[in-house]
């Protein structure tokens, strides 16, 4: 079976000359949850932004067999959902329900169909009771769940989450780990939070200077690279 994500020789340089990716090869199989580990600036987020065409470098990126190019962007972005580190950047409508319905509407569903999708997604993440609330009234953990619901409403095959435990207290981190483990989609988690990675990920890839230097179990890479961070608690 073909992988859900296939990346070969991906290179990217920012306009200021910074080389962010220097030949990345990666594949994601159906059902996998993979942690992307490595220092800030090692290329993890830049890599993720190539998966749905927000950035475009040299090399090849395929999502569910589709090359990531301008012709395929609409379909690619339906297949892969990106949840940003700061959930507030994805929440901008007056109510939670309108926020979650925005994606399906943008993909051509009728208002009725979009609301149905939004209600189902909010129920899936345990946030249906907040449908009529303004997003800015929610806690950090609730905002994260609503942001995930907004992605789930489009029914993607793959979820990509950038530092998903940021701003979450320990109960919120545990609840998010349980939620993600229950979702059927394949997932990529960019994280410094090793307990979270251990709880959710089937394997890991370690970034250094714009390349993946090694792949293996979370525990194996944590030991080899002395990488054992815990997410800071909110103040």
Taken in chain order, the helices and strands follow as EEEHEEHEHHHEHEHEEH
Mean of residue pLDDT?
90
Beta-strand share of residues: 15-25%
CATH topology: Rossmann fold
Reading off the top of the CATH hierarchy, the class is best stated as: Alpha Beta
Alpha-beta content class: alpha/beta
Name the quaternary structure.
single chain
CATH-derived architecture: 3-Layer(aba) Sandwich
Shape: globular
The proportion of residues forming helix, as a percent range, comes to 25-40%
Low-confidence stretches: none
Q: How many independent structural domains?
A: 1
Span between N and C termini? 46 Å
Report the sheet with the most strands, covering strand number, pairing sense and barrel closure. 6 strands, mixed
What features would you highlight for this structure?
4-stranded antiparallel sheet; alpha/beta; 235 residues; 25% strand; 6-stranded mixed sheet; Rossmann fold
Polypeptide structure, described:
It is a single chain. This protein has helices at 44-51, 73-79, 96-106, 111-124, 140-152, 170-182, 194-200, 218-224, and strands at residues 5-13, 19-28, 33-37, 58-63, 66-67, 80-83, 158-162, 186-190, 203-208, 211-216. It is of the alpha/beta class. The protein has one domain (5-224): Rossmann fold (3-Layer(aba) Sandwich), CATH 3.40.50. Strand 9 (203-208) and strand 10 form a beta hairpin. Helix 3 packs across helix 4 (111-124), helix 3 packs parallel to helix 5 and helix 4 crosses helix 5. The protein is globular and about 45 Å long. The model has no long low-confidence stretch (mean pLDDT 90).
